[in-house]
Design a protein that fits this description.
Keywords: Lipid metabolism, Lyase. Belongs to the enoyl-CoA hydratase/isomerase family. This is enoyl-CoA hydratase. It comes from Yimella lutea. By secondary structure, this protein is of the alpha/beta class. It folds into 2 domains: 2-198, 2-enoyl-CoA Hydratase, Chain A, domain 1, CATH 3.90.226.10; 202-248. Helix content is 48%, strand content 16%. The chain has 11 helices and 10 strands. The strands form 2 sheets. Strands 1-2-3-5-7-10 form a 6-stranded mixed sheet, sandwiched between helices. A hairpin with a 4-residue loop joins strand 1 (2-7) and strand 2 (12-17). Helix 1 packs parallel to helix 3 (74-92) and helix 9 runs antiparallel to helix 10 (220-235).
């Protein structure tokens, strides 16, 4: 369902959506596995960056498992809801930088997993969309909130209300996707970016993300206060002392970390 891989020196974790027989459709079991995996990564201080990828070459994730849901009663759907929410918020709440590597289809809940990441890299042949209103529901994994924050109201409205699928190029032009990679190359590019990120201060990375995430939902004055608190938490950490020392000695830092 979910495979966690470690790369290089262990500071990069890859969270692999691994239900290829269903093109990574999110079943109740898979949602629970995703929530568990993200919880473990969030609690691991050695992790500096997370790449979310897929084991299926033609699908990142096609969204909720509608075959499973077709047999649900209303009570079943209510019971599943907190499990599904825990899966999506688990990705969103990871305290380190996250990169979605999207090749193939990223639809509905699959697009929402990508949107929960800080950066989305898509292969040129990828297809993205939030088609939920075409099947009588709405994006419920954060899509109505995250897409508006990422691209603005009008562009998010175009994506969500039309329910249509967008090419990777269109998604990039909308701001849904930050970077395009050659078809099939999203994972390689995401890991390359993760390696660049992981060279930096783990305390700095966590506090920069915290300041950005908490501040983005407030007015500017409140956001600057959040930034100041995160600055203090970083500036008086062992990482800051090591960073300055390494710069003066013209060597790579050996980060103490959180």
């Amino acid at each position: 369902m979910i495979t966690v891989r470690r790369h290089a020196d262990g500071h990069i974790a890859e969270l692999v959506l691994d239900r290829p027989e269903a093109m990574n459709a999110v079943s109740t079991q898979m949602a629970r596995a995703l929530a568990d995996a993200t919880g473990e990564l969030a609690a691991d201080p050695s992790v500096r960056a997370v790449v979310v990828s897929s084991s299926h070459p033609k699908a990142f994730c096609v969204g909720a498992d509608l075959k499973e849901r077709n047999g649900f009663s209303d009570a079943d759907l209510i019971a599943q809801r907190p499990i599904a929410r825990a899966a999506y918020t688990g990705v969103l709440d990871l305290p380190v930088p996250t990169i979605a590597a999207v090749d193939g289809f990223a639809l509905g809940g699959g697009a929402e997993i990508a949107l929960a990441c800080d950066v989305v890299i898509a292969g040129e042949s990828a297809t993205l969309g939030l088609p939920e209103v075409s099947v009588g529901v709405i994006p419920g994994g954060g899509g109505t909130q995250l897409l508006v924050r990422r691209v603005g109201w009008g562009k998010a409205a175009k994506v969500i209300f039309s329910a249509r699928k967008f090419t990777a190029q269109e998604a990039h032009e909308l701001g849904f996707v930050e970077e395009l990679a050659p078809a099939g190359g999203a994972r390689d590019r995401a890991l390359e970016l993760a390696e660049t990120i992981a060279q930096n201060s783990p305390v700095g990375l966590r506090n920069a993300k915290k300041a950005m995430r908490l501040g983005s939902g407030t007015d500017l004055h409140a956001g600057l206060e959040i930034e100041d608190a995160c600055w203090h938490a970083t500036a008086f950490s062992p990482d800051r002392a090591e960073g300055v020392r390494a710069f003066a000695e013209k060597r790579a830092p050996r980060w103490p970390g959180p």
